[in-house]
């Protein structure tokens, strides 16, 4: 009974230093982007909420990611959660990626400190060709009436159209 209770307590205790990677989608076309998010649980470190910008947190090692994807943007953010007087600090690195080739691509394991993520598989297909000359994305704008009086409110309807 005591052993079961101890194992249950260990199971609900948050693990420090866990590392996760996820993408917003696994199927895309060649000219589309995807968002890769790497999430790490920071160890309990004494710092102030106002000192987050001065933290010297090492960046994750992306391995061979740039061989198959181009990194367009990179962002970093923190999330601090307080529950029952216990704080948890998570750091997120977000990358906007565009594939360099088509086919089945693999985002390699990402390393941070002594942890590593699992590889992620992405399926990239060719962009379909279209027979029309219309652009893939365009905007239409339309007023609710052809004329207006001074000070009169008007409604402008804007539509974003895409294929």
List the topology elements.
Elements: H1 2-12, E1 19-23, E2 27-29, E3 34-42, H2 65-68, E4 69-83, E5 86-99, E6 103-107, E7 111-112, E8 115-116, E9 120-125, E10 137-143, E11 156-162
Parallel strand pairs: 2-9
Antiparallel strand pairs: 1-3, 3-5, 4-5, 6-9, 7-8, 10-11
Describe the protein.
By secondary structure, the protein is mainly beta. It is 9% helix and 46% strand. It is built from 2 helices and 11 strands. It has helices spanning 2-12, 65-68; strands at residues 19-23, 27-29, 34-42, 69-83, 86-99, 103-107, 111-112, 115-116, 120-125, 137-143, 156-162. It has a 4-stranded antiparallel beta sheet with strand order 1-3-5-4. The protein is flat and about 65 Å long. It starts with a helix and ends with a strand. Residues 1-16 have low confidence and may be disordered.
Q: Summarize the biggest pleated sheet.
A: 4 strands, antiparallel
Report Rg.
Answer: 24 Å
What portion of residues is helical? under 10%
SSE sequence, one letter per element: HEEEHEEEEEEEE
As residue ranges, the low-confidence spans are 1-16
Key terms for this structure?
163 residues, mainly beta, Immunoglobulin-like, four-stranded antiparallel beta sheet, three-stranded mixed beta sheet, 2 helices, 9% helix
